[in-house]
Amino acid sequence: MLRSGKKGKYTIFLIFLLSLLILSYSYVFSLDLNSSEKIYKSYFTSSSLFGSYVKKSIYDDLPLYRFFKIYFVGSTEKAETTKKTGDYLLTLKPFDNVSSDEEALARAVYLSYWEAKLNNRYFDEEIVKNSPVFNEFFSQYQIRVSQAFGNFVQDFVAYIFGLDIPMEDLPKELEKLRDIVIKNYKYEKVYNGEEKEAIRLLLSNPELVKIISDTVSEAKKNAAEYDPETLIMRTRASIFRSAFVYIAGLKDKIATQFVMITPREINLAWLRWVIYGVLLAIGYIAFKNINLPFKLFIASETVYVASFFNMQSTTDGMIYGITFAIAIISSILYFFAKKLYSYLLLSVFTLIVLFIPSFFTEDLVMKDTFSKSPFFKTLSYDIFEDSLGKVQRNLKEYNSTINESIQAFSNLISELNIDTNVSEEYFEPQNFSMRIELAKKLRTQYKDHVKEIEDFIYFESNRQKKVEKIVSTIKKIFARIVSISSSKFKNQVFDYVKTNFSDKIATQLLNELEKIPTKRVIALPTYKISGALSSVILLSITLFLTAMNLKEAFIPLAGSLATSILALFKYQTVFIQVGVPSISLYVNFNIPYTLVLVLIVGFIWFYPNILRRRERV
Fold first, then answer.
1. Which of 96, 342, 383, 545 could form an S-S bond across to 553 if both were Cys, CB 3.0 to 4.6 Å?
2. Contact at 8 Å (CB) between 554 and 604?
3. CB contact at 8 A, 40 and 261
4. Residue 151's closest CA among 113, 185, 109, 196?
5. pLDDT per position as a tens digit, 283-311
6. pLDDT of residue 222
7. pLDDT tens-digit series, residues 103-145
8. 8 Å CB contact between 484 and 517
9. Tell me, what's the pLDDT at 363?
10. Using H for helix, E for strand and C for coil, what is the string for 165-214?
């Protein structure tokens, strides 16, 4: 009796534990969109820890990471797919330590929102669906929905064919299909309520409901041909195959729901173009004079470029980039044709100044604190481990050439049958010269193998030059890196050299790299500074209007003077790249090229007018 009682208790305990596991499974793998939406909206509040973390990482760390990456190895990246802002945001590891799928989905959509924001794009369904962060979440979620929907369909088919299976909230069109097709068959339920919300969304699609209805109706016609189990599983498979495209389409529905609840930032800057058009039309039609509307247009755009020009905006970049190019090139050609050499030189200098270093900052020298950034490891991977990165590509070529050299030398020695007389030193990777010298000596001794030896000498000389060129390239890359790196990142460079190169070459590289001093400041060209770039754009417009002999040239000239003076301030906004926030940095000193040019242009422009007034007096 005692043993029997114990068994009963164990059985009750196991049943309880199994029930608890089933409930836990249902909770963990069932996504509640309403709950996820609430979490998502909370990220836009100032009290959100995750929202604050994302903002800080994006505005403080992301620009530095991208600057270092571009400074070290350039902006051109070889990759299987072109990296987007969303790929950079994956570095934030949004799915680490999440407590639920609802939170994971909310984070994925929130980062896709930031991807749109950083690229100055309207946040819509396409942005969400194409976001790398959202796709990383959805790829896993889709697998679970597919499994859950397959189990649901299996139970649904058993229920529709007449078995006593509890089914809830079926659409009326599907409920009507129930018919006693299968009798006296013991069926065990397989669906435990996973992903109810996703299945509800799927069954709300009339197209899918019709497909399910047609599939069930067709299966009923052939029901007599199959045993109950085969009938259920065949029908399940048919419905699942047809429904898979709709499961993938859940991405659209989820994206749409989140886009609808996202706070909107309204940008009405485009309305100024409508206003310009209306004013010009009124001036031309009503007064047959567009002088005043034209002046208002020039004045308004001068204020916009000086105060609101957004270097991150694709629209602004395209409009004012084209404007600058047309203005400066037209001015140069016109002044050259008219032999107005003072204006010609000023136009040429305006173009040159755009690209020469004129601002110097210490804030872009890597600080030790950057090692705490989530982007530090990503930068390390990009530089040292990325198989398509510059360092790895050169290293692979280096190793390949070294191996080819050793193999070719081994083959030659074996063919001449003198392996026992050759020192191990000749097989050291860096000893190209020794191998070549030995081959030259062997040429006189083994006249029957002159061609093979000559070929070895020729190709070995080429391999030596190739390795020297590769080492030189890697040295230049590493020299650029250590010149602005923190001590921790420098140590990574040194460790990489020790690990991946032969002792002789590693020692040579390390001796040279350790002598490179850390830069005190980093030079930035004019176009990288927001205010200075605005000044140059306005100056080009001034020169263009001067070439057209329009007095309105003084308006952008005044704007250019104001922005060039503001560019002397110690804090400036620095452009890194499109899709990455510009960053405000302390400028140690600058060379006011733009201010000098503006003052000269202003003097040349105003001086004739002053002289004319004096002559009249």
1. 545
2. no
3. yes
4. 196
5. 777 777 778 888 888 999 999 999 888 88
6. 81
7. 999 999 999 999 999 988 889 999 999 999 999 999 888 898 9
8. no
9. 95
10. CCCCCCCHHHHCCCCCCCCCCCCCCCCCCCCHHHHHHHHCCHHHHHHHHH
Partner residues linked to 357 by β-bridges: 525
Strand partners, 523: 360
540 touches 350 (CB < 8 A): yes
Element (H, E) at 608: helix 593-616
- Residue pair 392/477 in contact (Cβ under 8 Å)? The answer is no
Residue type (1 letter), 472: S
User: Which residues 6+ apart lie within 8 Å of 253 measured at CB?
Assistant: 201
C-alpha span between 218 and 181 (Å, rounded): 13
**Residue from 28, 21, 15 nearest 103 by CA:** 28
Instruction: Give CB contacts under 8 A, 24+ apart, made by 31-35.
Output: 31/101, 31/102, 31/105, 31/141, 31/195, 31/197, 31/198, 32/102, 32/197, 33/102, 33/105, 33/197, 33/254, 33/257, 35/100, 35/102
- d(CA 250, CA 152) in angstroms, rounded, equals 17
Please state, in angstroms and rounded to a whole number, the distance separating the CA atoms of residues 149 and 169: 15
Per-residue pLDDT tens for 13-27? Answer: 333 333 333 333 333
Spatial separation of the C-alpha atoms in residues 523 and 526, rounded to whole Å: 10
Global model pTM greater than 0.85: no
Phi first, then psi, for residue 522 (nearest 5°) are: -115, 135
Distance, CA of 235 to CA of 545 (rounded, Å): 76
SS3 letters across 521-584: CEEEEHHHEHHHHHHHHHHHHHHHHHHCCCHHHHHHHHHHHHHHHHCCCCEEEECCCCCCCCEE
Parts of the chain with a pLDDT under 50: 1-29, 617
What are the backbone dihedrals phi and psi of residue 189, each rounded to the nearest 5 degrees, phi first? -65, 140
Amino acid at 464: Q
